[in-house]
Amino acid sequence: MPIIRCSRCISGLLLTVLLLTALSGAPSTPAQMSLALLGDFTLRTGLAQQQAGPRKYLIKPLNLGTNTEIRARATRNLQVRVTDENDRPVPDAPVLFFLGSLIANGTSGAGTLAGQTTFKVLTNSQGVAEVNFTANNAAGSLAKIKAQVEGTDAIWERAFNITNSPVDLQELSDEAFDALNEARQNPSAFAAKMEAALKTDAAVEETARFLRNMAQQTNHKFALLKREVGLDQSAREHALEHAKNPSVSHRGSSADCSSVKDWVRCRIERYGTVDGYYGENIWYWADRKAHTGTDAVMGWVIDRDSAIRYHRKTLFDSAVLTALKDNATGFNAEYVKVGFGCAFDETTGNLTIVLVIADEYTSKPNATGK
Fold first, then answer.
1. How far apart are CA 329 and CA 121, in angstroms?
2. For residue 213, which of 316, 330, 303 has the smallest C-alpha distance?
3. What is the 3-state composition of the chain as percent helix, strand, coil, each rounded to the nearest 5?
4. How far is residue 16's CA from residue 166's CA, in Å, rounded to a whole number?
5. Which of the two ends of the chain, N or C, has the fewest CB atoms closer than 10 A to its terminal CB?
6. Pick from 299, 296, 332, 327: which is nearest to 313 by CA?
7. CATH architecture of structural domain 57-163
8. What is the mean pLDDT of the chain?
9. 138: pLDDT confidence band, cut at 50, 70 and 90?
10. What ranges do the domains of the chain cover?
11. What Å distances lie between residue 352 and 161, 163, 361, CA to CA?
């Protein structure tokens, strides 16, 4: 049976329609019917795409967290992900990175994007585009970085302050997160690491015993903590204030908070909803030297300045503390969510890290960060 191909122009598009017919009037074969259906599908798909209009893209940060500082002369890898309206990654999308920067005296030049002020790259198979930003050496600079899917209105932008912080603040919070999970998941190994890093004294010995005893409580397994963007934002907000003035302690300057419980709750509920137990720890250094997230977690676990080790108890589930006859708080928390925020203040020289932990917490939809 012959196949007759008929071409026609519909809405300015040349569409080929396969018409199957028997010149003798006999019925079409299955193979011919398949070709006819394919032609009809192609026609309908073309029309649908024409009517749907241009594809819509979304662009979101991947690895930037909540910190908006970058150390002078440091290089930070910036990653964004491009998705469609159904949150599916878009590969091979052209992304333009732009650098609009000002330094303190109003002249340009806060840094470069891969050695340039603009940089173009295609997204990979996961829809990710990345570029390295290198800051200049002038603290007080403000780098405004924008990423845009070329030819679309999909845009992401953020301003970064160039600081003289002794450490990368995002790396500091990420390391603290990893160290806390290690202390919860493998307390014996964390005890050994602590003993190797610190000069042994009564407090370190007591902490090592606590961790090893906790490791033997096999009837309770700690959940692997997950970073929660709303808690990150709450911790970051308070770290900024605390670095300027450590005397605010857990209080902060919010007028709508009247007690320790309210101080923490009113901050975390700006960025989400809490239902259950939550806690906050703060650690800071005033020596303008480099420190690590592990240093902070070890400090909280040892908790030298608290007779009941309140900072330590904030980090671990109540079931284990009760089993160890060490649950002086009376809490009944099983933590699964955590946030970290860090800040360095150029004037005071204070480097602050804040942890917020919760068992039930949901970030607001517009929360952004790690």
1. 53
2. 316
3. 30, 30, 40
4. 66
5. N
6. 327
7. Sandwich (2.60)
8. 80
9. confident
10. 3-52, 57-163, 169-363
11. 17, 14, 24
